[in-house]
């Protein structure tokens, strides 16, 4: 089974591409979804994160408030590193379980969707690697519109991530997304056709 990687920068369009892949009945393992699962209330991950960042990150329901936690880690590289260290091994273990299940079901192709795939050193595990890219200007404009942030706040979020150019350097396929949704879907379909050809050779 080929498990190809899908990544990108904030507001680059990765989620839209991931949704389209799902609509084509290709299984998607979503690392962001797993990141939520491994810190749900009453899990080891939850206890570790609350111990590290304090009860101020909890919402009224006692679950971790991702916005409150995000406000801390987006402005503090050390805090971000600490959080990622807590999450990566737990997400990795859960991902391996899901991949094993898909293999048992005899899937030929699956997608591993992760914003921090390159940063986590997972590039070689998920080849080919697909990077969804947009210019920093496009990213900032989309974040401002989507999240109601100021330009400086949006820029801080872009700058908190590994530069997209570094992800592109690791990619097997790059899907440029500075245009329309139709253009994005057409480019995505072209890349998927190429990956399907590889899967049929296995």
Biggest sheet character: 5 strands, parallel
Could you tell me the CATH topology label of the largest domain: Rossmann fold
Which structural class fits the helix and strand makeup? alpha/beta
The number of helical elements comes to 9
Q: Looking at this structure, what is the CATH superfamily of the largest domain?
A: P-loop containing nucleotide triphosphate hydrolases
CATH class of the largest domain: Alpha Beta
* Proportion in helices: 55-70%
Listing every helix as H and every strand as E from the N terminus to the C terminus, the arrangement reads EHEHHHHEEHHHEH
User: If classified by CATH, what would the architecture of the largest domain be?
Assistant: 3-Layer(aba) Sandwich
Q: Would you identify the regions where 5 or more consecutive residues have pLDDT less than 50?
A: none
Spatial order of the strands in the main sheet?
2-3-1-4-5
Radius of gyration from CA coordinates: 17 Å
Morphology: globular
The number of strands is 5
Q: What is the straight-line distance between the termini?
A: 7 Å
Structure explained in plain terms:
With 202 residues, the protein is α/β, with parallel strands linked by helices. Strands 2-3-1-4-5 form a 5-stranded parallel β-sheet, sandwiched between helices. It is built from 9 helices and 5 strands, in the order E-H-E-H-H-H-H-E-E-H-H-H-E-H. The mean pLDDT is 93. The protein is globular and about 50 Å long.
Could you name the key traits of this structure?
single chain, alpha/beta, Rossmann fold, 5 strands, globular
């Amino acid at each position: 089974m080929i498990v190809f990687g899908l990544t990108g920068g904030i507001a680059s369009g990765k989620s839209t591409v991931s949704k389209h892949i799902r609509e084509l009945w290709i299984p998607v393992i979503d690392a962001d979804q797993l990141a939520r699962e491994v810190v749900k209330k009453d899990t080891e991950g939850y206890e570790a994160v609350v111990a590290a960042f304090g009860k101020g990150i909890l919402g009224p329901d006692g679950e971790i408030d991702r916005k409150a936690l995000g406000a801390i880690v987006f402005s503090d590289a050390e805090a971000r590193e600490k959080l990622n260290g807590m999450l990566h091994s737990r997400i990795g273990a859960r991902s391996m379980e899901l991949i094993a299940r898909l293999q048992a079901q005899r899937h030929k192709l699956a997608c591993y969707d992760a914003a921090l795939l390159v940063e986590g050193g997972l590039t070689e595990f998920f080849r080919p690697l697909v990077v969804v890219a947009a210019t920093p200007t496009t990213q900032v404009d989309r974040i401002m519109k989507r999240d109601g942030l100021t330009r400086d706040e949006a820029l801080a979020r872009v700058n908190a991530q590994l530069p997209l150019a570094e992800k592109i350097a690791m990619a097997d396929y790059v899907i440029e997304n500075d245009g329309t949704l139709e253009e994005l879907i057409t480019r995505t379909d072209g890349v998927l056709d190429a990956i399907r050809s590889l899967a049929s050779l296995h």
